[in-house]
Structures are given as structure tokens and as C-alpha cells.
Amino acid sequence: MSRKPKSDQEQVGNAVEQLRLAANLSRQELADRVDVHYQTIGYIERGEYSPSLVLALRIADALKANVEDLFWIEEN
């Protein structure tokens, strides 16, 4: 498998907000399910914070989604 060199400009895109809303969950409800502060969910949804692998997996589980459907590396 070929990998591009990591760039400081790489951004992680996500569909957390869309899937959270589709699940009819507030930020607080999702945060409670994955054991983080509700502001962390907001930071993730706005792309201001990239979650750890463990947190990404917890979010995917809480939203009944595959982690690769929630997070991806944005193409520059």
C-alpha cells in the first residue's frame, strides 16, 4: 500500500454532526455516551479537533456507524 507523505496541512473531514442529528442526539447526549465534554463533540464536528482512535471508535459505536464513514483525510 502506497502512502502519501504526511503534510502539516492535512485535515480530517467528518460526518459526525450529520449522523448525530440523524440519530436524533444532542451534542450532550453523544458526549455522555462516549465520555467526553459536550464541547469536544462541537470541536470535532467543526474540524477543530481530531479525535484519538479510541474516541473515534467510541463515536462510531455510539452512532452505529463505521469509523471510515465518520472520518476521512481531506484531499488538498
Explain what you see.
The chain is mostly helical and 76 residues long. It has one domain: lambda repressor-like DNA-binding domains (434 Repressor (Amino-terminal Domain), Orthogonal Bundle). 49% of the residues lie in helices and 8% in strands. The chain is built from five helices and two strands; from the N terminus they run βαααααβ. The protein has helices at 16-22, 27-34, 38-45, 53-62, 67-70; strands at residues 12-14, 71-73. It is globular and about 35 Å long. The two termini are 20 Å apart. The model has no long low-confidence stretch (mean pLDDT 91). Keywords: DNA-binding. Residues 16-70 form the HTH cro/C1-type domain. It holds the Pfam family HTH_3. InterPro entries: Cro/C1-type_HTH, Lambda_DNA-bd_dom_sf.
Spans of at least 5 consecutive residues with low confidence:
none
Q: How is the biggest beta sheet arranged? A: 2 strands, antiparallel
Order of neighbouring strands in the sheet with most strands: 1-2
Give the class-level CATH name: Mainly Alpha
Class from helix and strand fractions:
mainly alpha
- The CATH topology annotation reads as 434 Repressor (Amino-terminal Domain)
- Percent strand equals 5-15%
Cα end-to-end separation:
20 Å
Report the radius of gyration as a whole number of Å: 13 Å
Shape from CA axes? globular
Helix content: 40-55%
Mean pLDDT across every amino acid position: 91
Topology as a string of helices (H) and strands (E):
EHHHHHE
CATH homologous superfamily caption: lambda repressor-like DNA-binding domains
Domain count: the total is 1
Number-wise, the strands total 2
- Tally of alpha and pi helices: 5
Task: Give me the CATH architecture, please.
Answer: Orthogonal Bundle
